[in-house]
TrEMBL record:
Name the UniProt record assigns to this protein: Uroporphyrinogen-III synthase
GO MF term list: uroporphyrinogen-III synthase activity
Enzyme class per UniProt: lyase
Domain Tetrapyrrole biosynthesis uroporphyrinogen III synthase intervals: 13-242
Length: 248
C-alpha cells in the first residue's frame, strides 16, 4: 500500500511520519493552505458582547490557531460564561487547552449533522451564537440554529487557498510512485483532487485507488465522482485515519 495524504500541513506531514514509522509508504500532497482570516480583529469585541449562556462554535483547529493569537494581541481571553462547542474531539481538545473550559463535541461522529442533534442545542431560541470558521464551508449549522430561533454571527478566522500543481506532471509522479490509497478530509479537497488530473489519469489510476474519507457525506460525493473502493474513518483526526488505513 502506497498512500497519498492530501490534507493540509502540518497534519499531512504528521500523518505521513506516523505511517512511515509503522512501515508504510506514504507521501504528503496538501491541496490547500491556510492564511489569516479577514475578521480576526473583530473577535475580541464579538466575544465580549455575548451574554452568559450564549454559544460559541469552533469548526476546526485552524480557527483556534488564528483566533488565540488575535485574542492575546488584544489582551483578551475566552469568556468563562459562554457555552463552547467544537466540531470534533481534536478541535475540542485544542480549545480546552487554550481556554481551560469544558468543550462539548459530538462523540458519535464528528460532523455538523451530529453536532446539531446534541440535546443542548435543541432549545436555543433567543440565544446568540458566534461561529468561528474559515471562508466558505457548509451552512447547515448556521441555518439550523437560525431555524431554532438563535441569532447567528460569524468570524472568518482563516482562509483556505488552493495550492497550485501541474496536473499532468503530478499524475505521472504519483503513478510512478505506485500510489494506490488516497486520504481526503473535505469535499473541497475531493473535488480539487478529481479536477487536478487529466482524464486519462482519472480513468486509469485515480478512480481505482482506495479512498479514505472522514464522513458518509464525503463517501456519497466520492461515489458520485466515480470511486468505488471507499473507507470512512470514524473521525477527521490523524488517529482515526491511522486506524482506518491500518484496516486496509
Amino acid at each position: 500500500m502506497s498512500i497519498l495524504v492530501t490534507r493540509p500541513s502540518p497534519a499531512a506531514d504528521e500523518l505521513v511520519s506516523s505511517l512511515c514509522a509503522r512501515g508504510q509508504v506514504a507521501w504528503p500532497f496538501p491541496l490547500i493552505k491556510f492564511t489569516p482570516g479577514t475578521q480576526l480583529d473583530l473577535l475580541p469585541a464579538r466575544l465580549s458582547a455575548l451574554q452568559e449562556g450564549d454559544l460559541v462554535f469552533i469548526l476546526s483547529q485552524h480557527a483556534i490557531h488564528y483566533a488565540q493569537p488575535a485574542l492575546m494581541r488584544a489582551e483578551a481571553t475566552w469568556p468563562a460564561s459562554l457555552n463552547y462547542y467544537a466540531i470534533g474531539r481534536s478541535t475540542a481538545l485544542v480549545l480546552h487547552t487554550v481556554s481551560g473550559y469544558d468543550v462539548v463535541w459530538p462523540h458519535e461522529q464528528e460532523n455538523s449533522e451530529i453536532l446539531i442533534q446534541l440535546p443542548e442545542l435543541q432549545a436555543v431560541a433567543g440565544k446568540r451564537a458566534l461561529i468561528l470558521r474559515g471562508n466558505g464551508g457548509r451552512e447547515l449549522l448556521a441555518e439550523t440554529l437560525l431555524n431554532r430561533g438563535a441569532q447567528v454571527e460569524f468570524i472568518q478566522c482563516y482562509q483556505r487557498c488552493a495550492k497550485y500543481y501541474h496536473g499532468a506532471e503530478q499524475g505521472r509522479r504519483w503513478r510512478n510512485q505506485g500510489i494506490d490509497t488516497l486520504v481526503v478530509t473535505s469535499g473541497e479537497m475531493l473535488q480539487q483532487l478529481y479536477s487536478l488530473f487529466p482524464e486519462v489519469d482519472r480513468d486509469e489510476w485515480l478512480l481505482h485507488c482506495r479512498l479514505v474519507v472522514v464522513s458518509e457525506r464525503l463517501a456519497t460525493l466520492a461515489r458520485a465522482l466515480g470511486w468505488a473502493n471507499i473507507c470512512v474513518a470514524g473521525a477527521a483526526d490523524n488517529d482515526a485515519l491511522l486506524r482506518a488505513l491500518n484496516m486496509g
